[in-house]
Design a protein that fits this description.
Shape: flat
Oligomer: single chain
Largest sheet: 5 strands, antiparallel
Radius of gyration: 43 Å
Structural class: alpha+beta
Distance between the termini: 82 Å
């Protein structure tokens, strides 16, 4: 609550009437503000509309579904946040946490959630008021900085030289050395760092005095270090190194270090002639390596500076949001209490009144615009608060300027008292809850419609829930609802189901009972949806087929399946028709198998032209010389085996069939052995127009006998047969590319 309760009324009014304070009250907050009930598993009383911009779902969804927020939380964070909430609720201390949520488009966002417990004047716990900030950008920046740091560390440690950092003092302590030191000198990185003066001890006796003198001089002048000298390796070998370093001075006085590289040049010293040839190239490479390190250090410094700038900006934004959230959105007002005056008098009303009720603050007469049905109750509550100083909290209706009815949630708290101790002024806010009230009304109407549909429709609707007595024992089942049609469906009293759910399994046909029990146990354990078909024996002895389908609605606080809902449909007639259809299909297939014809089925993507045969009759081997499996593997075998003289005509007819949905042609094909066969093929598109992929079904009949003549094959035909015999099998060319 802004301001000191002991300050004068005029000072507070000036504070609220200033342009900046008014703007803070009415501007859209760039954070999500919410109010939760003071329950261990709270419900949201209010959440600002900009939650939809943050998470993709309107605020009303979170008000209607208390568990939606927790379900949208990242699974890796859910247990931690729920435990933290329980601890905060038990102690009443301010709550602050950071966690991940999934937007409605499944994008992951990071949130910072802060709330405090709101107490009444008497110290009674009322509710939790909080604010949620989007910190996704901040988190991603931190991840980027960590990745950059790892990248540059990998760059330094993989350079094929000993990269080191050494203090500029007389002790010459090694502060950092790259793992390459083990390859050059035989000492591990840990051994090198555990003995800070190891570099001095490993200097060759003939070089120690000269090298240390150079090092002292460069420490004094700060000039870059460039020297060749010898070190003694762990196995006693003499290793020549070319050591180059520069003195990096820190931002603070006295903070500096040598950054350098040592390159093993033993082979070059063993072969002086080779060293002379490659000296210039070696110096160039060392310079490049040193420049890379300098660039890496510069980039790292830039990254650190940018991170500090972002952290400073984040702190500023956080402070600004904290100030903004102190004033909740809505019609903010100051109510001045005048004893004996039944009309409520306002010292300040925010301009948002114009948006909600259509009135300017100076023309609004609040008492006269209250809905007639609510005036008496509102007057009594206002009179009680004005007399006792207790908070005013009520939902009621106003008549807007255009005559529409607007529901508001009006909450005001005592701000000051008179010298005599009587209430003097209240500070409050009115929130427009018309949409919520309309939604509640619609929900009630929808519930009535659903109940009528559930209890009068052809399907039996039911729900049940699981009760867990312990972690190891199986849960018990309680059936709270079964629609009335169930009694007529199975001719058994519904009350028996509600009292003893196991009665249902006793009515299942013995041949189906075991499979239904296994599926049910799986559904109850995992919470996955189910669709079952099984037989049930009615009380009069008749057997019916049921389609039983349903799904889990909700899990308990421990994540175990809890509530379920399903429907039952009498599909006895469907099962009979299906059995007859399967018998008819079997008869047709047996008939086709006995004909000299090839039944086939294929799918075609109209956009890409991709085709795939999903069925091919066994007669293909007798007619074409290929097994069905060979033809189904070769995606476009058909153009390859069509007679060359018929291919153009067949291609045109196939294109026409794409428009008509029908195809019928008589043509020649080339068997695997080169023999020419005549086929009469009929096909049609069986899938609806516009559905992809298209499904075509047909049959190809061998009509060679009716087309046969007594003439012997011509030389051209004999040549075609020879070519066909020379073509590879489908397994050798699965794409059918030799056609077209």
């Amino acid at each position: 609550m802004p301001g000191d309760p002991r300050s004068s009324s005029s000072e507070r009014l000036d504070l609220f009437a200033s342009e900046s304070r008014v703007r803070e009250l009415v501007e859209q907050l760039p954070v999500v503000v919410y109010v939760d009930t003071d329950d261990q598993r709270p419900s949201t009383i209010y959440i600002s509309p900009n939650v939809e911009q943050l998470l993709g779902l309107p605020a009303q969804r979170y008000l209607d579904d208390p568990g939606l927020w927790v379900r949208s939380m990242h699974p890796d964070d859910r247990e931690r946040i729920m435990s933290l909430r329980d601890d905060v609720w038990a102690t009443g201390v301010p709550y602050r946490s950071e966690y991940r949520m999934f937007r409605s488009d499944v994008e992951e966002v990071w949130l910072r959630d802060s709330s405090v417990l709101v107490l009444s004047d008497e110290g009674k716990r009322l509710a939790w008021q909080g604010v949620i900030e989007d910190i996704t950008t901040e988190r991603r920046a931190e991840q980027g900085i960590r990745a950059s740091e790892a990248r540059y560390r990998a760059l330094v440690e993989r350079v094929p030289a000993v990269v080191y950092e050494m203090g500029p003092d007389d002790e010459r302590r090694t502060l950092f050395v790259s793992p390459h030191v083990e390859q050059v000198l035989g000492y591990t990185r840990d051994e090198w760092l555990d003995q800070p003066d190891i570099w001095i001890e490993l200097l060759h006796a003939d070089d120690r005095e000269v090298v240390l003198a150079h090092h002292d001089r460069h420490n004094e002048t700060g000039e870059p270090w460039d020297l060749e000298y010898r070190l003694i390796a762990s196995d006693g070998r003499v290793v020549w190194v070319h050591d180059r370093a520069i003195l990096i001075r820190g931002g603070e006085p006295g903070v500096s270090a040598w950054h350098g590289v040592m390159i093993d040049i033993t082979a070059e010293h063993d072969a002086k002639e080779m060293l002379l040839l490659h000296k210039e190239d070696l110096e160039r490479r060392v310079n490049e390596r040193t420049n890379e390190l300098q660039e890496a250090n510069e980039l790292m410094a830039l990254e650190i500076g940018e991170r500090r700038r972002m952290e400073n900006e984040l702190r500023q934004v956080e402070e600004r949001y904290r100030r903004l959230v102190e004033n909740m959105p809505g019609i903010a007002y100051i109510w001045e209490v005048h004893p004996g005056n039944e009309v409520r008098s306002f010292g300040y009303v925010s301009p948002r009144l114009q948006d909600v009720l259509g009135f300017a603050p100076d023309e609004w007469q609040a008492s006269s615009r209250i809905h007639p049905h609510d005036q008496a109750a509102v007057a009594d509550a206002l009179h009680r608060s004005a007399g006792t100083g207790e908070s005013f909290l009520m939902e009621y209706r106003f008549l807007a300027k255009d005559g529409s009815v607007v529901w508001v949630l009006d909450h005001a708290s005592l701000m000051s008292r008179t010298e005599g101790g009587d209430p003097s002024s209240f500070q409050g806010v009115m929130l427009d809850i018309t949409a919520r009230k309309d939604a509640e009304s619609k929900a009630e109407a929808a519930e009535n419609r659903f109940r009528a549909m559930a209890e009068r429709g052809p399907a039996v609707m039911y729900s049940f829930e699981l009760a867990y007595d312990g972690d190891d024992s199986p849960p018990s089942v309680r059936v709270p609802y079964v629609s009335p049609q169930a009694a007529e469906l199975v001719r058994y009293p519904i009350d028996r189901w509600l009292e003893k759910p196991e009665v249902w399994f006793e009515m299942i046909h013995p041949d189906d009972r075991e499979s239904v029990a296994r599926a049910t146990e799986q559904n109850l354990r995992t919470g996955e949806p189910w669709t079952l078909r099984y037989r049930l024996i009615r009380s009069d002895g008749t057997v019916i087929w049921l389609l039983d389908t349903g799904s889990m609605l909700e899990r308990d606080a421990l994540g175990r399946p809890w509530t379920f809902q399903g429907i039952l449909l009498n599909v006895t007639e469907d099962e009979g028709a299906r059995a007859r259809l399967e018998a008819s299909e079997q008869n047709q297939r047996q008939t086709l198998d006995g004909m000299l014809a090839i039944p086939w089925s294929e799918t075609i993507d109209p956009e890409t032209g991709y085709e795939r045969y999903v069925y091919m009759g066994q007669q293909a081997f007798d007619i074409l010389g290929y097994t069905p499996e060979e033809l189904m593997v070769e995606r476009r075998y058909f153009p390859r085996i069509v007679h060359p003289d018929d291919r153009a005509r067949i291609r045109e007819s196939v294109l026409r069939s794409a428009e008509t949905g029908l195809w019928e042609e008589t043509y020649r094909i080339l068997r695997r052995d080169g023999e020419i066969r005549w086929l009469h093929s009929i096909g049609r598109r069986s899938s609806p127009l516009g559905v992809a992929p298209e499904v075509w079904q047909g049959v190809s009949i061998d009509v060679t006998a009716s087309r046969a003549t007594l003439e012997t094959p011509s030389e051209e035909q004999q040549g075609i047969r020879d070519d066909a015999q020379a073509e590879p099998s489908p397994a050798a060319d699965p794409t059918g590319a030799q056609d077209r």
